[in-house]
Amino acid sequence: MSNIHDTQWMQYADCTGMPIDIFVPAVHENAKINYAKKICETCPVIYDCRAYSLRLARTYDLHGVYGGWSQKQRNNHLRTNALTVRRPGVAYKQETPR
Questions:
Q1: Tens-digit pLDDT profile for residues 33-80
Q2: Which residues, including other chains, have CB under 8 Å from residue 67's CB and lie 6 or more apart?
């Protein structure tokens, strides 16, 4: 499993070079949130981004859209699924601290 500092995948993200405010709208700005999610839909590293955001969200109050998920979606996922993100043939899972 990659660690939180492994960000090489970011160079392949569709959002590279875009203004950050596209992906960090206010909580109730649904049109902006949906626009950011649309950008993520076809991104080749959507699952890497999503897994990265789940790891960050365990430590930080992470706002914005990452990997096509809003803060609310990440929080719901963390409550019900720990830190697993599935895609065909690959699963990311955060190890539980001992």
A1: 999 999 999 999 999 999 999 988 888 888 899 999 999 899 888 888
A2: 40, 46, 47, 48, 49, 50, 51, 52, 53, 85
**Alpha carbon 10 to chain centroid, angstroms:** 11
Confirm if 39 and 18 have CB atoms less than 8 A apart: yes
- Please say whether the beta carbons of 25 and 33 come within 8 A: yes
**pLDDT at residue 94 greater than cutoff 90:** no
- Look up the pTM and report it: 0.75
Alpha helices in the chain (DSSP H): 30-41, 46-57, 71-81
CB-count exposure of residue 93 (10 Å: 0-12, 13-18, 19+) = middle
